[in-house]
């Protein structure tokens, strides 16, 4: 049963993530809405400058730096630099939650499967198990600390409380349950990591015979349930964040004659609008071009 | 502890104010401005006015929305509002902003990082109503409960509750005009959510579906510009007359031949001023003319309507009005056969022409557009004109217009000029892309109905005023004349009103103006100072 749930969790999560990504990607090109600083601006990003600073910018070769973008993203993803800079009191909880509760736990799961695939044994397996145990334990503790802190903020901070809904509390409690059950399993079972590796092997080999002890069953069950639940929540923001940054904030591509963008805009401007205020009166009959080129009555 | 404003209260008790702003709540200004402020009374909305128009938000009225005649009209408005909310999330009606808006709808963590970045919220004494998230959260709850498919109870459980009625929509309409759309909130959001965009989109929805927009932006703004040629009301004939007069005047003042060229075919440069400069700050277009002629630039202004006015208020509230004006600007440039269009000292003109409309101007309508800052930088450092920086030997600070710095990333050219020509130049804190809005952004500077100016000066403009005073803290005395370089017509309008309200010239010797005036003031060829300290 747990094995089936695990497969279902992976499938739902992957399908959910792909669907979310597809849903965002299929939206039409938008108008420019960039926001400084744009990190790919070579030599200018550190103070927020852009190519618009150059005299007759359209005659110059654009200097873009992928390295700057990657460095920005690395700091943002790993260290949550934006929160550090703009909301330090939140960072003290959000960073341990993301770094420990997600990255360390995620890395541990990856190592578990690596161990399961490689079929390591002897001292190599012991070293890997210790490493996983340390990472996982640290992840649970950091995640738990972070979640408790975030929960405390939502319950007590007058800035945040009015904006917190049932879903916020439910999500945090759910995560707390996962970390707590993980810690409980870790301390109550002598072979927690080894058993989890065994479970990973049974998942890879489609062998349903492997049985986990009850504390680990509870932990795996909660983790799988969370994976199934995740795609239906705003916690999928790790996908949206890519688009927020790359497609919106940093999208400073100018229009070029005869290019793909021009073709797409021509198509979009040909759509019929239904905005109904008197100065538009689209009624689904007028296109954007019709309305925009209409002479206003004097 | 201050009582929090509940989002679920937004649609309740529509005959009462949702909250109030009191002077005592505002962070104090330094002396003597604390006393000046205490002595001035904010205008109260009369009972007669309250009977006729909607006044149910915070005691200030920017919009004068008439009350509905009966329940039938109320329902009609609410239905239209729902239709508008729906249209905002469809490709055919809002392709230009669908992706950023949808992401902003779905991925806000409500962490309130943006609130600390918002000068309006901070300077209101942290009134919940002005949080960037408050307005956005109302919209999110309305969309989730009334637009998205699925049971309402689930939407309420997941996203929180909100009522939908006349009170909700009338308050939300007024609340859209309590945010200057400076996008500091978006810049600080770790996720990338843009709550200023929500303001923009809601304003659009009210205008494009219900036909609701501030008179100053619509009737006397974009409509007048499209009908007459300029939101100032100047026709082609009048604007040419006015500039002739300015040319004559400044020829006399400077002893130079000041002649503004019009409609020169195939010129290298088409300069488009914000026509407000011609009316309110004639020294700005005059300075451009003097400088460009001295540098030997082959340039022109366009007299075709509405291309002698770079204003495009559509940026603040209506995509179609924006497009109509942008197309006409581009068409004039095309007809004149110019090589490029230079933005005058106007922030929203920069944004409207250089980025927002960039993707709707296709084919031969896409004429290169350049900010006046790198253009002026090129002239100043070209060696064609001799400058004497000692002529600008007075304290100068720079206000960064949000639409030029934060939105377009133009930061250095104006600073290179100021550092070269103004020996006592000093920065505000913070500055550049982290600057604070003047408080008059998104059209506020021209909105002066009812008691709205009290709010825009005392609340939204407060942080900027403090920043200016801080920048000159080494010379507080009024005897030392100080210059705030605010290279944007909208910002200048707001700073003018702030200085007048607090009598900042009298108490601190503060003057404001553009960048090009400082450049011309430093020209060796000018015998008399171009900048006049007496009004």
- Low-confidence parts of chain B: none
Task: Give the termini distance of chain A in whole angstroms.
Answer: 74 Å
Strand content of chain B: under 5%
**Secondary structure tally: strands of chain B:** 8
Q: What's the alpha carbon Rg of chain A, rounded to whole Å?
A: 25 Å
Question: How many domains, in number, for the residues of chain B?
Answer: 3
The helix fraction of chain A, in percent, is: 55-70%
Can you describe what's shown?
The complex is a heterodimer of chains A (298) and B (535). With 298 residues, chain A is mainly alpha-helical. Chain A folds into two domains: 2-31 and 80-249, Up-down Bundle (Fumarate Reductase Cytochrome B subunit), CATH 1.20.950; 261-293, no CATH class. Helices cover 64% and strands 0% of the residues of chain A. In chain A, α1 (2-25) packs parallel to α8. In chain B, the strands form two sheets. Chain B has a four-stranded parallel beta sheet. Chain B has a four-stranded parallel beta sheet with strand order 6-5-7-8, sandwiched between helices. In chain B, α8 runs antiparallel to α9, α14 (236-254) packs across α16 (283-294) and α22 packs across α24 (489-502). Chain B starts with 32 loop residues before the first helix and ends in a 14-residue tail after the last helix. Classes of the chains: A mainly alpha (298), B mainly alpha (535).
List the helices and strands and how they pair.
The complex is a heterodimer of chains A (298) and B (535).
Chain A: H1 2-25, H2 66-79, H3 81-86, H4 88-118, H5 122-156, H6 166-188, H7 192-204, H8 214-229, H9 237-249, H10 260-269, H11 288-293
Chain B: H1 33-39, H2 47-52, H3 71-88, H4 91-94, H5 98-106, H6 113-117, H7 119-123, H8 132-147, H9 152-159, H10 166-175, H11 184-188, H12 195-210, H13 218-228, H14 236-254, E1 269-272, H15 275-280, H16 283-294, E2 299-300, H17 314-317, H18 319-336, E3 340-343, H19 347-355, E4 369-370, H20 372-380, E5 396-398, H21 412-421, E6 425-426, H22 452-460, H23 462-471, E7 482-485, H24 489-502, H25 504-508, E8 510-513, H26 516-521
Parallel strand pairs in B: 1-2, 1-3, 3-4, 5-6, 5-7, 7-8
